[in-house]
């Protein structure tokens, strides 16, 4: 049997691990489960009844959270044609092939998102094995391959996040910090649950969402109802 420290056991007493909470209840409970001394992230975790090897069941996309997720993302813009716009966009880094060369030769990854203009995709494609496994490859479906550099960077800074189901049907994303108000957390939670529910492939039969759980960094799972969204 796994042994927990005194502090963690105290947190566990606040959560009924056998219960599926309403969204409103879950918001109240999860904010009490932080076991860190810092302002922990709150993640949402879905287990979906999908087969990601089928193109129409590879659940992926983006969502702009109503209140952001409390994380500041560093953006790299890779472009030859929109350098001036990139400079004015608020991105931390911008440039052309020299930025890709820096990644390749110096193992440089001091950024969270790459926004690219279409003219750079040929060069970026050569780095698929480097960027792909890290989830950094720009994609038109997530709005990170675009001529609207300013708009893309602004969306990311406002809290736009990308999500993608893994090979086991799991999908996770950070949606808030413990310091968020209950209402702001609830707004973000509802937005994400509704977005994933609407992404249900037409080829999925029966149950689509198997379960949803909220958790703080290193905290226990708080299971959430998805009645009416399955």
Main β-sheet, in a few words? 4 strands, antiparallel
The percentage helix is: 25-40%
Strand percentage = 15-25%
Shape: globular
Total number of β-strand segments? 9
Distance between the termini: 34 Å
Number of helices: 8
Mean residue pLDDT:
92
Report on the structure:
The structure is a single chain. The mean pLDDT is 92. Helix 2 packs across helix 8. A 4-stranded antiparallel β-sheet has the order 7-1-8-9, with helices on one face. The relative contact order is 0.26. The longest helix has 17 residues. The protein is built from 8 helices and 9 strands. By secondary structure, the chain is of the alpha/beta class.
Protein topology:
Layout: H1 6-12, H2 23-30, E1 41-48, E2 60-64, E3 75-78, H3 83-88, E4 93-95, H4 97-106, E5 113-116, H5 121-125, H6 128-131, H7 149-158, E6 160-164, E7 170-177, H8 182-198, E8 209-216, E9 222-224
List keywords for this structure.
29% helix, three-stranded parallel β-sheet, four-stranded antiparallel β-sheet, globular, single chain
Summary?
The protein has helices at residues 6-12, 23-30, 83-88, 97-106, 121-125, 128-131, 149-158, 182-198; strands at 41-48, 60-64, 75-78, 93-95, 113-116, 160-164, 170-177, 209-216, 222-224. The protein is an alpha/beta fold. Strand 8 and strand 9 form a beta hairpin.
């Amino acid at each position: 049997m796994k042994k927990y420290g005194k502090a963690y056991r105290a947190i566990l007493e606040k959560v009924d691990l056998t219960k599926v909470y309403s969204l409103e209840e879950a918001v109240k409970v999860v904010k009490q489960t932080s076991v860190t001394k810092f302002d922990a992230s709150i993640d949402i975790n879905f287990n979906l009844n999908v087969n990601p090897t089928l193109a129409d069941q590879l659940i992926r996309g983006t969502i702009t959270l109503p209140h952001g997720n409390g994380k500041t993302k560093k953006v790299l813009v890779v472009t030859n044609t929109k350098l001036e716009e990139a400079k004015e966009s608020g991105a931390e880094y911008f440039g052309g092939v020299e930025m890709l060369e820096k990644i390749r030769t110096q193992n440089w990854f001091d950024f969270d998102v790459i926004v690219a203009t279409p003219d750079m995709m040929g060069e970026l494609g050569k780095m698929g094995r480097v960027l792909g496994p890290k989830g950094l490859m720009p994609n038109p479906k997530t709005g990170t391959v675009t001529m609207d550099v300013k708009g893309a960077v602004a969306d990311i800074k406002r809290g736009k996040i990308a999500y993608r189901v893994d090979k086991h049907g799991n999908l996770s994303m950070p949606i808030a910090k413990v310091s968020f108000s209950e209402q702001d957390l609830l707004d973000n939670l509802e937005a994400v649950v509704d977005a994933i529910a609407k992404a249900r492939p037409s080829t999925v039969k029966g149950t689509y969402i198997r379960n949803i759980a909220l958790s703080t960094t290193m905290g226990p799972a708080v299971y959430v109802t998805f009645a009416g969204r399955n």
